[in-house]
Structures are given as C-alpha cells and as structure tokens.
Design brief:
- By secondary structure, the chain is of the alpha/beta class.
- It is built from 5 helices and 11 strands.
- The chain is globular.
- The structure holds iron/sulfur cluster.
- The site of iron/sulfur cluster has 12 residues, from loops.
- Iron/sulfur cluster (SF4) binds next to loops.
Length: 198
C-alpha cells in the first residue's frame, strides 16, 4: 500500500491540548471538503510512499522523537490505519487531526489523541479533543456541535481573516461557554504562527 503525502517535518505542536509537545508531523494529501478559509496547501502530492518508507524518512529527520501527528487535508480519506498500527506496535504516541466528516467507528482505539475540528457534516461522533474554529460561531451553535461529538477536551480557536484573528469575539464566546456550559472550554491559539515556526 502506498500513501499520498504532502509533507513531513519535525516541530512543536502549536494548537490545542498538545501545545508545546514535539512531534514528527505527517501531512497526507487531499481532502474531501473545500472550506473557503482553508490555509493548508494539502492538495499537492509530493511523495508516494509505503509505510516502511515513511518510517525511514521520519527517522532520518529525528531519530529520537516517537510522537507522530497525522494531519491533512483529511487524513481519513486514505486508509491510514495500517500505518497507525505499524507505529503503535513500535510504541509511538499517535495524534490525528480530522474534520470529522468520515466515520472511523471503533478504530479510534488505535489513536492516542484524535482531534476533530468539524467542518461540514460530522459523522465521527467521538474524539479526545473537540476544537471549534470561531467562524462567526454562536454559543448555541457551539453547544449544538458539542452535543453531537463526545470529547474529553474542548477548545475554541480564533479564526484568521485578512491577517487578523477574531480574538475578542473568541474570548467573549469562551466567557459565555464557561459561564453556562458544564464543560470547561479552553482557548487554542496558533502558537506556531506567533512563534514563527513551521
Ligand atoms: S477540512 Fe481542513 S484541510 Fe479540508 S478544506 Fe477544510 S480547512 Fe482545508
């Protein structure tokens, strides 16, 4: 089996629950959605690689890191579970970021940390981290989404438009959520952009 890969690199996670944790990032090519605000150049297939080739290339970048962050595009458009199981068998920590539009059923058991940042219709109903991008999000809409997807950790991520983030609207929304909802909601900033790293 060969995978369509856009890029891979070593860096620090800049967002959400794992902020600051070092990872080998593996970005799969392609997505089943086309959001107007997408800022990821995921379409280009730079590499077509087997699991062994992915492993060898990641080891060349960093031989000691055993944290793999799989992202896209939408990584579940490709059958990534053989690759996840391969790395799990070697003792790696596996995090995946998804738009939640594809149902992976009980295969979530192979993933240490699944983040869903919902766009479009949500089919995956369980994750570890729900991260909502504040695209004119209301309190009511945030609660509606939260009730559709079970998660341990809840984040609001400010949205960038024309180089400006809606920080004030996001803080206001966080205040409303933390006043009225039983879950505690946290702010997720794109720290990698603020720190000027990849
Ligand atoms: S789901 Fe994510 S990667 Fe896919 S188009 Fe939307 S923002 Fe881009």
């Amino acid at each position: 089996m060969k995978y369509h890969i856009n890029e891979f690199f070593y860096s620090l996670q800049g967002e959400g629950y794992n902020t600051g944790k070092d990872f080998l990032f593996l970005r799969f090519s392609g997505c089943n959605l086309s959001c107007y605000f997408c800022d990821t150049e995921h379409e280009r297939i730079k590499y077509t690689m087997t699991i062994q080739e992915v492993y060898q290339e990641l080891k060349k970048i960093n031989n000691s890191c055993q944290n793999l962050l799989i992202t896209g595009g939408e990584p579940f458009t490709q059958n990534i579970f053989p690759l996840i199981i391969f790395f799990k068998d070697k003792g790696w920590y596996i995090a995946v970021e998804s738009n939640g539009s594809l149902d992976i059923g009980d295969k979530i058991k192979y993933i240490d940390h699944l983040t869903i940042s919902p766009k479009g219709k949500t089919r995956q109903k369980e994750c570890h981290e729900l991260r909502l991008i504040n695209d004119n999000l209301s309190y009511k809409k945030a609660i509606e989404i939260k009730e559709l997807i079970s998660a341990k950790h809840h984040f609001i991520s400010p949205m960038e438009k024309d180089g400006t983030f809606n920080y004030l609207e996001s803080l206001t929304l966080l205040g409303q959520l933390n006043k009225r909802d039983k879950e505690h909601w946290y702010l997720s900033l794109q720290m990698h952009k603020l720190a000027n790293i990849e």
